[in-house]
Predict the structure.
Amino acid sequence: MFRLFFVLVITFFFSGCVKNTPPKKIRPNLLFIAVDDLRTELGVYDSIVKSPNLDTLARTGSYFTRHYVQVPTCGASRHALLTGMRPSKPIHLSNQAIEKEISGKPEQAIPETFIHKFKREGYHTVGIGKISHSADGWVYGYEDPVSKKRELPHSWNELLFDPGQWETGWNAFFAYANGENRQSLKKQVKPYEEGNVDDDGYPDGLTTKLALAKLRELKNKEEPFFMGVGYFKPHLPFNAPKKYWDLYDSHRIPLAPYPKIPEDIHLKSLHESGEFNQYALGEEKASLSKAVSDAYAKKLRHAYLASISYIDAQIGRLWKELKTLGLDKNTIIVVWGDHGWHLGDQRVWGKHTLFENALKSTLIVKSPYLEHQNRKVNQIIETVDIYPTLMELCDLKIDHSIDGESFVHTMESDQKPLDGVAYGYFKNGITLRTDSYRLTQYYREEEPTLELYDHIQDPEESRNIAKDNMEIVQGLIPILEQGDTGLYDF
């Protein structure tokens, strides 16, 4: 009897211990979606664009109305994203930033990117499409064969891409529905196409198919995953299947709210839309001296909106599959636009300026945790802040210094005072965005070198008011100087 009593006591004691042991915390998966040239042009941002999937994703997660990239060009913006660092030397403003600063380097104690950090922490990392600057993650020129040199040598467990009939990543990046591309046609192409094809008739559809198949495979892995999916559209050329063009009445598409050159600036603050004008068969050329016609501007804006709707459908397919597989309950989804784009705003077609239109882009973060749901976040944040935010969401520590700061608190609680600032760098200039103003300092001979825009009275940045408001300028200069990384120490 005593022995039986002793066994029962021991059994009760150990069963109690087991019950009181906290369950092992499950680490969330990450689905990181990078979208090329996606400014805040979604329905949720009060645009006429048809983007039902992204709008729902935004409204059931957190979407950021004032997210700013560090550099308004693809490769440099992605370098800042991946490293959490603002540009500190000229190469950091170039599309070659990742190739020159990361590719080909031996593995170091400091991870090369936040993806590398996830990999070291036991995540299975998969890259599909354009996450770094290269269209497929390999280092080679636009017209060269695909190389065997990874742009991010230590970040990916798997690097995948399906170029389809276009054969290489860069051909696919500039693809037309007939299998040709901007390079093969020697730039004798239009900057848009209304393709008589289904979603898989352009490369982004093939990227989605590849990602769907990989998600089904990853569901059965024990370790958590980080999947990066990089979409090309709405980058030029604005090509999309016809059914997405048909969503819009071209006559009802609005023109740029301010299509003129801002008052009291030097033209060097803008540019002649050179990237856009490479598409030699466009009906009209863009320039600062003459705006394109209203009819052509509407056609181009129509093409841009159709391209976004096409990508919205692809992201919708990914999200649907996550839910079908039951992965949505433990997967953080991030949608990031690598910079903005002038659609005739300030008479520019393209990025590559220090104006709001080039620096502000889409950012959506959907966490599977209730406290991160249904938040419109008006706090100013920067692309460099994404790195530490993902680390905090996944309960990972950063062991080295970076420039970014986590914005998880903005998704968890009531908004704090709008005291954030954002810095941008390009064209020999630094720009500071505060709640009410944008102050830009150019390091050049051409005057004026200071530009101040009042975003309360002039959200379109139509008039530089610096010379008449030097007291405000002088108050902002010390804050701007905090963002001076030595980039322009000539």
